[in-house]
Structures are given as C-alpha cells and as structure tokens.
Amino acid sequence: MRKKWLASLLSLTMLLSLVPTAAFAAEPEEEKQVTVTETVDTLDADLADNDGLFAGYVQQLMYPSYGVSLFADWGSSTGVLNDSEKEIYTQLKSKIESVAANGGSTKFELDVSSLDITWTGGENGYKTVFDTSKIIMCLLVDCPYDLYWFNKRAGAGWEVSSSYDGSTYKLTALTVTLFVAQDYQDGSDTVVDISKTEVAKTAAAKAQTIVNTNASLSDYEKLKAYKNEICALASYDDEAATPGPWGGYGDPWQIVYVFDGDPNTNVVCEGYAKAFQYLCDLSSFKDAVCYTVTGAMLGGTGESARHMWNIVTLEGKNYLVDVTNSDSGSVGQDGGLFLSAPDEGSWDQRYRFLIGGQTISFDYDFDTESLYDSSILTLASSDYTPPAEVTNLTATATYNGMTINSSTIIDVPLKGETKEVTLTATATYSDGTTGSVNAEWKIEGNPWGVTIRNNQLVIDPTASNPGQTADVQVSASYGGKRAFITLHLHKNAAQVASFDISGPDGIAVPTSGSNTAEYSIENICDQYGGMMLLDDATWTWSITGGTGVSVDDTGVVTVTSGAAAGSAILTATCGEVSETFTIHIKDKQDAVVTITGVPTEVVAGSEYFELNAQIQGGSDPDYNKISWSSSNESVLEIQNHGTETVDGNLQAFVGIAVKGLGTATITVTYEDDTYYGQDSVTITVLKKPALSDFTYTLPGDTVYDATAKEATVAVKGGITGMGSYKILYNGSETAPADAGTYTVTLQVAKSDMYAAATFDLGTFTIAKATPTITASDLTVTKNTTQALGASISNGGVLTYQSSNPSIAAVDANGTVTGVAEGTATITIYYGGSENYNSMTKNVTVTVTAKNLVAVTFAAKGDQTYKPEGYALGEQFNAATTTAAGGTITYVYNGTTYASLFDLPTVTDAGAYTVTAVYDSATEHGETQATFTINKAGQAPLTITSTGPATYGVDYTLTTTGGTGTGEVTFEATGISGETGGRATVSGNIMHPNRAGIVKVTATKAGDNNYNSTTSATVEITINKADYTGTKSAAGSARYGTTGTVDLSGLIVPNGTAALGTVTDADGILNGAPTVTGNALSFTFKNSEGNVGKTAEIPVIITSTNYKDYTITVTVTVVDKYVPVLDVKDLFGTYNGQPVPASVITGTATYNGAPVEGTWSWTSEAPTNAGTYTVSVTFTPKDTDTYTKATSTIMIYISKATPTGAPKYTAINTSGKTLADAGLTTEGSTFSVPGTVAWNDPTNTEVKANTSYQWTFTPADTDNYKTLTGSIELWHKSSSSGGSSGSGDKTETEKNPDGSTTTTVTKPNGTVTETTKWPNGSQEVIETKKDGTVTTTTTDKAGNKTEVVENPDGSSKTTVDNKDGSASVTKVDEDGKVEAQVKLPAAVVEDADGQAVTLPMPEVRAASDRDEAPVVTVDLPRNTSAKVEIPVRRATPGTVAVLVKADGTEEVIKTSITTDNGVAVTLSDGDTVKIVDNSKKFADVAASYWGSDYIDFVTSREIFSGTGVNTFDPDLPMNRAMIVTVLAAYDGADTSSSGGVWYEAGQRWAVANGISDGTNMEQNLTREQLALMLWSYAGKPDARQSLTGYPDMGSVSNWAKQAMAWAVENGLISGVDGALAPQGEATRAQVATILMRFVEKAV
Q1: Which of 48, 259, 1220, 1400 is most buried (CB neighbours < 10 A)?
Q2: Count H helices, E strands: the chain?
Q3: Which residue, among 923, 1337, 924, has the nearest Cα to 915 in the 3D structure?
C-alpha cells in the first residue's frame, strides 16, 4: 500500500491546483499592508487515507527506520524547490513533525525575518517567487506518516501578508494552515489529538523495558520470558480481528494492544506472533533467530483458515513457537507449543502436533513458502531441551596471573599503557554441573574511570594521582543470578627503577689542555614501567679511572693532557639505583671515517661493486693507511682497494665481489700516528626474484559486465621470505571493470631475503558491451500522441529521429505524434560510452486516420487432443466492442473470415491464435485470443518380451500399446542394491552382460499430439550361457615328479576351478591332484614303468555367466622333458658361405626355467640370397632330464653389393661418343665377374666437364646387386675467356634457359663451375683433382644444400634452410645412410599438425635392418611432431622402425606410406630405420585386389599369416582374430601363456571395453567389426547417416552409430553398393579396413 501511495504522490504536480480567494485592501498607497489568502487543494482519491498513514506512523514509532520516505529530503536536497521555497519548506516540515509527536495547533506562523522576499506585478505576484503547491507536494512526499492527521480534502490554507511601497511588494508575514481530519481533531479542525500516539509510545517503552529486564539471560531464558510476558499482558478475543478503523488482519495496533497496559484491548494470533517477533527484534541473541509465518491452523485456540505464529532457530535447529496457543486456557498452555517439534508431517505437507489428546496442524500458506527457504520452514525432529537452570553464580578476577581476593591490592602504575584485570563468571546449574559463562558485567561505582571490555576490567593510569586508593565493585549477571567482586586499587608515588647513560664511547688525551664530553641520562622508568622525566628525581655523578679524568654534577667528563690511555668508569646514581658507562681514554685523536656509495640493494648474481671512504681529521690524512675487512667473506669478499681522485678530491675505494646470499659487515679503518677512526656498513645480499617464483593467472579477454577483472598471483610453495607484492593494471592497483586493454604488472617489494623486482605478466582486453534496445512497432491515430516505450538494457540515454516527420513526429522523450496517415521509420539511437558500443534500432510507426477502439475477445478454454480435431470457431466467444456502425471479422493464418463459424477445424495439438478485427469508416480496433489443444495421454504401454535371456546373446525387446509416432526406448537396471550394469540396451536389443535378473522399463516418446508414457517394470531372467570353447588339455611330467597345467586360457572370466573325480586306471598318480587358481598340479609315482601311461583329471569350472563345464586334462608320464623353444629369425648378407649354426639365437625353457644346451641345423643351412624356412635343433646339455627339440625359423639373406670401377679411355676432343670411351670390365677392379654398360646410348656425344652414369651387372644376379657409378670423360681446363694473373683459367657460357655458367680451372687441377639463374638461385660444382665433387645449390629463398661426393663412393649432404631447419646426411662407402635432422619450434608450429617434410635427400628402404637408412630427428625439447621422411619408391610394406635407447627395435605400426616417403610421429631425439618389411605370401599374388592392404598390415606386424607362406585372404575373420589384431596394434603382448592362442587378445578386449570376451571363435560380421573399431576409437559422434544404402534398415540398432561412423570415415565403402552389415568379413577385407583406420587415426 505504501509504495502505491508514494507512486501516486509523484504525479501530484499534475493534480495540485490553486483555488485563490483574495481579501483586497484599499487602493495601493505608500507602505500599505496587503494580505492575500489562497487554498492549495490536495484532494486525490488515490492517495493513502489517514488511517493507513497513521498505521505507518505507529510502525515508525515501533521500528524507527520503517517510516523513512522513499525520497527522504526531496524538497531540500534536489532542484525541485528554489531557495525561498526551501526555507518555507524547512520551517513547515519541522512544525509538522512536532505536531505529529506532541499535538497542538496546525496553524503555522512562519518566521519571515530570514526571508527577504519581494515581488512586483500585484499582490499575487508572490507566486512568481514561491510556489505553494510545490512546497505542499514535497512535504507530502518527504514526511507522509507525520501528516497522518492532515485532511487532504480540506487542503492547505495560505495567508500571505506584504507591504507595498508603490512599486514593490515585500513579504511581512506568512501563515500556513493544514486542516486536521475529523478522527484526529482535538475539538478543532486545526488542533491535533495525540492520545492514540501516546498509547503507541507507551507500548514501545513497555516492550523495551521487557527487553532490558531480561538482557542478561541466556537465549532460551529470554525467549521463555518473552512468551510469559506476552501471555500475562494479552488476552485472546475473536472480535479483535473484525475489520474496522482499528481492527482487521495487518493492523499495527495488534502489537500496541499487547503492551499498552489496557486490559480492555485484546488481540488475536497476529498480536501474539508480532509482539513476540517485536521483542526478539529488539534483542541481542547469541544463537537465536525469530521468524513470523502465516498459514492455516486446525484445532487449538482461534482455529480458523488463517493463523500467524513464529519459528525460532535455536542452536542450529528450527522450532515452532505458537504464543497464542501457549496462553492460559489454550491447548498448549504452559508451553506445549513453545520451542516444539511436530509429531508427524513435513514443511510442504502440513505439520501435526499431538497435544492433550487432540491433533493441532499447521500448514504454511503461499506467501510464507515464497518468502522463506525450506531450510527455515523445516522443523526439528524433537522438542528443544532447555539447559539446566542457574542456581548460583560466582565471580573471580585475575591480575598478572594472580587470583584477586578481598585483601588483594592492585598497584596501578603512575603512567603508561592501560592495565587489564581478567573477569571470569562461573555458573552452578540445577543438575549439579558447573561451567564458565559469558556473563554481563557492570561497574557499580566508578572512581577512576575504569571500563569493561571483552570480559576485562581496563584501568587507565592517567585517571588517578600517585598515593590514591579506591575500591571498585563489579557485578556479573547471568541466568537471573548476580555475583559481585570488589577490587582494591592503589597507586604509589613514582620511583626510578631503571635508566640508561648515553654519550661518546671514548675521549682522546689531548697533547695539551683538556678535552671534554657530555653524558646524559635517558630512558628513565618507574617501578610500574612508566616513563619519568629527568627533573622528577635527584642525580649524582662519579668517575673512576686514574688521574687526569673527572666529572661534574651535570655529567660533563674532562680529560687532561696528563691522563693515561685506558678505561674510566662513569657512574650515575638516583637513590638506590645506579648505572655505569665505560669510557675509553684514547691516546689518539678521533678521525671521522665515512663510507659512501653504499648501494640501495645488492642482488645475488651481480659480480662486483665499489664503496668509497672519506676521512675528516688531521690536517693531511694519509689514505694509504686505510684498511678494509669483511665480516663474512662467503657473502662479500674484499678484492682490491686503493685511492682515487674524484672532482679534485682524494678518496679511498674498495672493490667487493658478491659471493653468496647472506649478510656481511664491511669495515674501513684509518690509523696513523695521531688519529684513529673506523666506520662500517652492513649489507645484505638479496635473492633476485624470478617470475618462475610465482604462479599467476590473468583474466581472459572478455566483454564489459561492470564487474572488476582481477589477476591472481601467489608465491610458489616452498619459497619463503619473498617481499610483499602488488598487481598493477596500467599502473593502478584497482582491478579494472571498464572496457579497455590492460597491461598487468607484478611489483615485488624488497624483503630481508629478496630484492625488489617488477615483472610484466601480459595483457588482457575488456571489450565494450553491446546493449539491447527494446522497442516495438507502433500504431498511432492521427492527431494523437503515444509513447514508444523504448528502453535500453544498460539504462543509457536514447535519441530518436523520424524518417518522415510529416507522417509521424517524435520528440526527445520518444513520444510519437501522428501527423498524417501513412508509415514512418523511427530510428532509436544510443551513442555509446566508454563501456558500451553504440546501438541503433528501427521501428515502424503506422499512422491511421481512424480512432482506435477496444475489442473484447477470448477463448472459452483449452482442450485435449482428439484425432477428429475441434471446430476452431466453437472454441471462442464472439468478439464485442462498445463502438457501433462497423463490422467484426476474424483473421487466422493470414485469412480473414466473416464469422467464427467460418473458421476451419484444427486437429493437431498446439496453440491457435485468432485476431478479432473491428472496422468502420471512422474507427478501428483488434485483439488476439489463443486457443490451445493440449497433448493427450497415450494408451498403456506394456513390455511383451518377458521370457528368459541368455548371457552374451542379444535379446530383442518388444512392446504393445502406446499411442502416436514416438519412438520406444528401453532402460535396463540391475536388482536393488546391485552395482554395475547387468545388461545394456541399444535400440530394442538388450545385451546381457551378466547372468541374473534385470529390470527393464520401456518409454514411448511423445510426439506432436501425445505425451510420453512409461511402462511398468518387468523382470527378465538372464540365464547362464553354454561354454563352447575348448574343454580338454594335456600335461606331462617325469615319473616321480610334480607337473602343472595352466588352464587360464580355458577358464571363462570370473570362473573358478575345482577338482572332479579322477580316472587313474593305471594308478600312476601319487595322491590327489590339486587346483590352485587356474593351475592344476599333479604328482606321478616314482616308477619308470609308468612311462607312456596316462590318467584323466576332470576340472569343473563354475562361473557367473556360464553353465558349469568340465575340462578333461590328460596327463602323461614321460621319461624326459621336451624343452619349449623360442628362436629368433635371422637376417644376413650373401657371402658365398652357408649360414653358420653359431648365429642361431633363442631360448629353451621348461616350466619357465631355462634349459642349457646347443643349437644346430636340423637340415642343411642355406647359402644363397633369399628367404628360407629352416628347421633348427636344440640339444640339451642334461640329456638325462630333457630330450631334443626342434623349431622352424625364417632366414633372410640379402644380396651382396659388388665393389670396383670399370676401365675406360679418356676423351680430349669434341665430336667423340660414349662408344669411343671403350668402357670394359677387362682390367677393371670389379670384385666379381659381370658386364658394364653406359646408362645413356653409346652414340651420345661426350661433352666437356660432364659426368656419365654406368651400371655394372654381376654375372650372379641371384646373389649380387647391380652397381652404378659415374665418370667425367672429358675435362676441359681452359677457355676463350682467357686466364687470370694467378694462373686460373676462366670460361663463361650463356645457357639456353637464361642462366650463365662460369668455369674456373685452377693450376692445382680444381675445376669450379658456377651457374646463376635470373631468379637469384645458383649452383656451384667444385671438382678436385682427386675426384672429390662438391655441389652447392642455393635457391632464390636462400636455402642452401651442399653435396660432397668422395672417390670411394661415400658422400655427405648438408642442408641449411632459412627457417632454421637443417640436416646432415652421410653415406659410407658401402652405401649405408645416416641422417641427422633438426626442426625448430617455428617450423613445427607452422605445420599446424600436418606432416613436416624433413629437409634431407631421399633414402632407399632396405629389407636388411642392418643396412637400412638411419634417421635421427632433433625437435624442440619434450615435444613430438608428425614428419615425412623422403623415401625413394616407398611401398605399402615400407615402415619406420624405432631404435630404442637399449638397442632394441620396434616397428612403428602407425607409420604411413605417402607419395613421397613415410609419414610418422616422432619425439625429440628419436632414431628410426627405414625398412622394407614386406611379407611375401604364396596365396597373395601381386595382382590380387587386396595385396597392398595385406602388405601394409603384415609389414607393420598388425596381422600375421596363417602359415609360414600363407595368408588365406578369403578366410572369414573370427572374433578371436580381430581382438588379437587390435591388441597387437595397441602394443599389448599377444603371446599365449599355454592356453588358447587368443587368450591375451581376449583379456585385452574385455579390459578395454572392446568386446565382452564371448563367442571368440564365431565369425566376425562387418557391423561387429565396425562396432569394435568405433569402440577402440573412443565412440566418437557420427555426423553422417546411412541414408542411401538400400540395406540400411538391416543394420542392427546397436551398430547403427558405429556403421555410420565407419562409412563417414571411409573405413567401410560397401559391397556392390550395399552395406552388407551381417556379411562375414574376410581377412583381406579386415586388412583393408584396418589400413584405412590406421591412416585416419594418424
């Protein structure tokens, strides 16, 4: 109500009017008096009534801050009133406030002596000086409650008196009468009756007395006392709630009537609750908070639909307090509903209390639930248990650790700091316990200005004089008990207790006469620790130390020339207290030595600094007699010193080296025959802070939001002693909120350990925000105005402009005036600010010539969807309007209909909006109404698939029922309390993951017309599956020994093994076998005759998901053990000799233990180059225990490379061909027989200084490679260009491509050919006499390549690029390549994840790893990069092999063959070999479609063949094969430990979520393969659908996303245009998909 009324006052300037009446005087004469009266009419029916204002005034008395007006001093502090008006306003406001509080006349005579108001223009001209209506308006706004008595219907009367001198009027008197409303008159309409006000004042005073009386009680005791006081003061009366002038709910008198002391004024529940709240609001609690709530109560006193009570939070829990029902005669008399907890219910469902055999319920209403959080409305579970009552209280005091008793005297110091006496109160409770309490302490009489603060008595020494005594009585109050203690204070006169003597350390013996020095007494303290003045005491001086030394009574010491060097003891005495001072009697005069140039700070890491010293003393000091020393040479070391002249003055210097952290004192000493002096300076060497000592975060770039953006800085853990620091933003310590770019600086102050430092942390930007302008198109009637109502989100100033003011004009406030019929665009513009961008919005204003009229149109109500739909017109009431003469039409979806009944039938759920349009020749109006069809509920949904499922077998879920087109989804959960997923669901396929019971719920999604629905939950039993794997195993052991069989490959996951009934017909077993974990152990009898005999041991496997099955283990007695062999394949180069057995490398073990022995070839070892499968034999050393064993290995023998060069005839003239060179092997140096020929045709003309390639083909091409080389047949050493003076011969030739070649031949035979091209590139070829050729090429960008070819066939290529990348590639005489490549950070970063081609020459992959090119990359530290190694004629079988630090090698499975070589991701310092690792299979021809894919996966050792020389490309792939392949690709060890061959891959797949490990030998479908690869890839989202494939519907629901992903990434491309998801995947197809997968992955 108050806000509404205040809002009404704001419009008062338009409502106030002046109704003047004049009492005219006679014709104006000189200095005549004129009086004019007027009445200011303040009548406004919407203003608050007097009773409402008086209610606010009462609240203002009870809660003084409540009645402050919204505008407070609007009249005096704003520009509404001028200075004269403000003075009148101020006087009236003061008088109004006085009358409201004290009553009296409302005819106010103002003091005009301070008002020098004059005017001209007649007696009413005062209105040009002060506006009476504005003054009254401001008073109504600023003190509304103080004007509760004002009769606004009668208004305000003004009587203005003035003197007139014939030209000017001057104000002489001013009387303002505010008339009083009838209910507030005291016998007259100008006198206020304040009897009601006095009652409210009395009530407020009574309440405050109650609070003061109980102030020392505990929280509980206070609350209990307030409840009892209210019940004693108030009575319940239903009639008190009857609405009327002073009754009704919400009446402030409900509080007043509780405390007014009048037994005839009663209250209802509101009075009880508000009075309790009021007392709590006036109180200070330690741990209690009171709230007032409303709602409904059933049962109890004052039962009704409305009730008011309290909630009290005490000791962290909430309790109900219903004071109404705690009063006498109520159901909760004596506290049954005081600090109570309910017996049942909840805060949002009604609380119920069982009291006296009946139930009282409390239900919060909407207002309460909206106002308070549930944490307040939730009540405790049990009633509050009050603490025991205090039966006794004792008080004690301690001072300086001593307990004070009645005879203790506290000595107060003479002066100095305050002294504290600690006060302690101890309570004894009714239950016999005691404890310290926080009592209320008071001083009963205060002679020395003693105060109490924080349970301490504070004594101010300055409040008393020496020799005084006083007794101070202190009381403690707690729990209704009081205790007293008396303190005896005494202050003795001050006496000297200690002091210091100050003066020079020494006095020199003069050569004649005497020297004197003055000594003084300082720091004089009395016995209380207070400071004293020298004149407060009497002093005596004395000195000992031989002849020639004396002291006077003022402390002046005299030393004569006859005194001897030594020491003198000076003594000062006051009473019984003495102090001494040792004076050194020196035989030399004092020299004043001063160190200068001391640095402000010295930081560790600086090497050297200097200090200077100057001497004052003597006529000519000898600077050579200065010495320097350091107290700590490990910190500061004296290095050199001497003298120097600066600005004509001689001074000493010393050089000091900084050695370490710490503090050292540098001392300079001067001493000659007459003078001695010394000075020292202490210097601390500080650490230099580094930015790495701190952690910090900067605000990111952001947009202005008016909040400060702060950087955070912290010193890293473990760093101590750092100086204080502050963060600066563009030099300011204030974190910025405004838009702009800010440089953040860390400024570190100097500390004892660290120097000062400043660091630039970086920058961030706060961009300007873009505000939002809100405005809508507008329709305006011609010749009328209408506000646009535009606003901007940041409250900025908007400006407006019309595109056509002749149609629609707009003013500065956004008010539009319709000028002529038509449309115009209003541009709303915001100019921006330092924090906001400018903004523009256009709205269209339509000006119509017709008057707008109101149209009433509404829908009848919403409906629920039904298939037949609804006639739209029947859902609305016909539109009506007060206008006449026009027609009403209806517009729906852009079509106009003449009547409602013409509207169409609508069928779908949703909202349908119809516009009713009234139109006539002069009037127009329209309005919209909306009819909504709500979605309907579906038919019940039932799961029909309830039969049992089997572990590992997909189960199809089906339903019946439901309605609409929504999709049915399923959710499977385990039984109550179970963890983990017993089953997962994809689409309508449930994948059983564990045997047992699973709960399944179906949900059919809603659609346009139906809401979603959920079925009842069904329980489906998942039965255990039949185990289809291998159920037999074998083992052996020697007679008399124990053997073991590892069954782990035959036991399903989570399976446990137990021994069955053993079949031992031959009695070979010694005792019963045992099963431990997955291992079977058995022992044979020690009988050689049992060799060859067997026994069958059944092992029963029990598991969670499989039915029990039996593994039959057949164990055989053997004579000797057969070792298990692991032999490595061999690689070598043809040398004409069979491969020796000494190179066979392998291990022989039995039961994991090594077996010693020798290796040999089972059959003849190969000699010639080729690939061989060879059998090897292992012969054990211990032939009594072990037998021989054989195994097969692969031997790869590479062709050898011949050496040598051909014989030829040199050419020395033009016109000759290669045939003339006579190239031949006769007389050549080739190491093997063969033929040699030119690579170019023999009729090729030989050119000077040109090399020609030749090829040597060995006769034995099966075992030797071809050899190539080059020869320069004609070397031209002179030219037409002449020769230089040095003997060089130079020839220059212009080439057809525009380049120029210059050939220089030196006397030593070196020939240099330099070719330069027009684009700036060049090539320099230097050929030395020994055959060394160096070719240096520099391209136009400045990248340089140098190739040095040596006569022995070796070479070195150096690349040095401008971007910092570089390489060195060496080829030895045998053709082996080693390259070292460097890539700087910038090159790696610029590649942005793409492969960086290494700057090096092409290399050729080798099948022999020992001969393969070796490449080492140098990258930025701790980084990796994708690189492309240039390889000549790389094939799918070309791989990179990583050479590890320990020398072992590993094929990099992710190395990819590119058009230019091999791409691979490497880390800094990695070394790789480029190897042709192709595998040849007899059943994979080069022309086979999948040969490249098979070559790719087998060379990377992702796949292996099915045999030594077979791959079986068309063999269907099973699940065991694919998990083994993926495990190998992931780097897992896939070797078998004795169980099934795929056990390692199976374990890996289950552990990594790739497979559930079941049906391993089942053939793999294409969709299963896609699912496994998708799972391995991390189940990424697929953006492509399977639309377009004719068999997309046959893809299983659980595989749809995986298949879409595989198609999107090109892994699966279809078979004859179809997906064939259930088609079996062959080994070749899987190889194809895996190659694509690897290429995509990297």
Answers
A1: 259
A2: 19, 112
A3: 924
